[in-house]
Specification:
The protein is built from 3 helices and 31 strands. By secondary structure, it is mainly beta. Strands 2, 5, 6, 7, 10, 11, 12, 13, 15 and 16 form a 10-stranded mixed sheet that branches. It has a 7-stranded antiparallel sheet with strand order 19-20-31-22-27-28-29, covered by helices on one side. Strands 21-30-23-24-25-26 form a 6-stranded antiparallel sheet, with no helix packed on it.
Length: about 475
């Protein structure tokens, strides 16, 4: 009778598949997974029959061995590719329902590709292809000032851990697109993730606020960082250059003799001013030399406190050297640590007495040195001014300034290789010297100290050390 039924079915064109055949289905669109998270590749049988007595294979088009193998009612790890061992699993409770979906743990960039889900019951074999795309969102990025460039400031926007290659967009405070003026470079690390860096030269505008936007088009996500720059940091054209420009324009409309007389007279005045400045400098120098022994006898033993160091600062093992790096250290973010300014404090603070220390700055063109109150804000983007508890001087390229409330320029005749910092707590004095020439730079006077003060160090020059060194006697 069964043979008759089979003949009847064949004669009337009824397919045999409804009595034993099955199909394997998966998503027709690519599956997107975030690097470091789990990926789910869905694959099911229709009808929903049990696969516990079948062979389930997950293959990858560019691999010679299986991504995952299930047969004889259990996983066969011996047949599995070494790179996937311990990172894949089937949903065992769902196998009786025809669900052979695969979970890939801790997705990597190299997991991206086309996968084949196949099921074999010894009499029938079906498979389907599923594409996996991996995306990396990247670590939180930052903008930093990388020095002066022509008539503006060079900004650098940097972030690590993206995939695929992200897009980067620069905008100004009024929304104008500055991306076309920027330079972008990409670097792929050993994990296949992309590190991106973009530099942009900016000039003063109405807001002095600039944004860097990094976009991952695959994940349809983005990150934005912004920086607000004080107008005082932008280079200004000196009066001398303006005057020369006027003189050059007058060459067209004035007599040659009058121009020559004006230039000679102006040079004579400048020579007198320079001569006066040199004499004043020599007076300061001789004064410092007379008191140098007294100052150097106040030498303090200063080391760096790693618990206060910004995550991007590398502190040497002897706690005497510090430099800015491109990557963040894996450190705890607690209340004592600077998280916005690339800064670090000394280990020991002062509540009385006189103290002096020297810092080698040779080769570092972007630093800030001085003292800071124990209670200064270490998390906010604040100005390093006396009103905020900082008594510091700063170098930005060839410009030196005291971070007083009115930003006083410091006249430097020879670029210092070492900076000496002198603190007289009771007298309310913080003085700075070019230690290698034993010459005076600047003094904060009339300060009223009421709490513990710590040596303060900050560097925004990549890979350039600040070194606490022995005092010259």
């Amino acid at each position: 009778m069964e043979g008759v039924d089979l003949i009847v079915l064949l004669l009337f064109g009824v397919p045999l598949s409804i009595y034993g055949k099955f199909t394997v289905t998966g998503p027709s669109h690519p599956v997107i997974a975030i690097v470091g998270q789990d990926a789910l590749l869905e694959c099911r049988l229709k009808p929903e029959i049990s696969v516990t007595n079948m062979v389930v294979r997950w293959l990858k088009s560019d691999l010679g061995s299986a991504v995952h193998m299930y047969r004889n009612g259990k996983d066969d790890t011996a047949a599995q590719d070494h790179d996937y061992r311990g990172r894949t699993e089937l949903f065992k409770d769902e196998l009786t329902k025809g669900n052979v979906s695969l979970r890939i743990k801790n997705t990597r960039v190299r997991d991206e590709g086309k996968y084949i889900c196949s099921v074999d019951d010894e009499t029938d074999f079906e498979e389907t292809m599923i594409e996996l795309k991996a995306g990396g969102l990247g670590h939180e990025h930052w903008i930093q000032i990388d020095g002066y460039y022509k008539n503006g400031i060079q900004l650098v926007c940097e972030s690590n851990g993206w995939f695929p290659k992200p897009q980067i967009l620069w905008t100004g405070g009024d929304g104008q697109n500055l991306t076309g003026q920027s330079e972008i470079s990409y670097h792929q690390d050993l994990k296949g993730l992309v590190n991106v860096q973009s530099s942009l030269a900016v000039t003063r505008d109405s807001s002095n606020r600039f944004q860097c936007l990094i976009q991952n088009n695959l994940l349809k996500k983005e990150q934005e960082a912004a920086i607000q720059i004080s107008g005082d940091f932008f280079p200004t054209v000196s009066g001398w250059l303006v005057f020369l420009s006027v003189i050059l324009c007058l060459l067209i409309v004035t007599f040659t003799a009058g121009i020559l007389w004006s230039v000679k007279r102006h040079r004579y005045i400048k020579d007198l001013e320079l001569d006066k400045s040199i004499k004043q400098f020599d007076q300061w120098k001789s004064l410092v030399e007379a008191d140098w022994k007294k100052i150097s006898e106040c030498e303090a033993s200063v080391t760096l406190d790693t618990e206060t160091a910004n995550p991007r600062l590398e502190v040497s093992k002897d706690l005497k050297n510090v430099r800015l790096t491109r990557t963040e250290m894996n450190v705890d973010d607690h209340g004592e640590r600077f998280t916005v300014w690339e800064s670090v404090l000394g280990s020991e603070g002062f509540t009385s007495g006189t103290h002096y220390w020297e810092v080698e700055v040779a080769g570092n063109q972007h630093w800030t040195l001085g003292v800071a109150k124990e209670t200064v804000d270490r998390k906010g983007d604040i100005h390093l001014l006396t009103g905020n508890g900082f008594w510091t001087i700063v170098r930005a390229q060839d410009k030196f300034q005291a971070n007083s409330d009115n930003k006083s320029d410091i006249c430097v005749h020879k670029i210092p290789r070492k900076i000496g910092v002198y603190l007289n707590y009771e007298s309310g004095i913080v003085s700075f010297y070019s230690a290698n020439t034993k010459s005076y730079l600047y003094t904060f006077t009339g300060c009223k100290f009421t709490e513990k003060l710590y040596p303060f160090f900050s560097s925004t020059h990549l890979n350039k050390w600040l070194r606490i060194c022995p005092v010259q006697h």
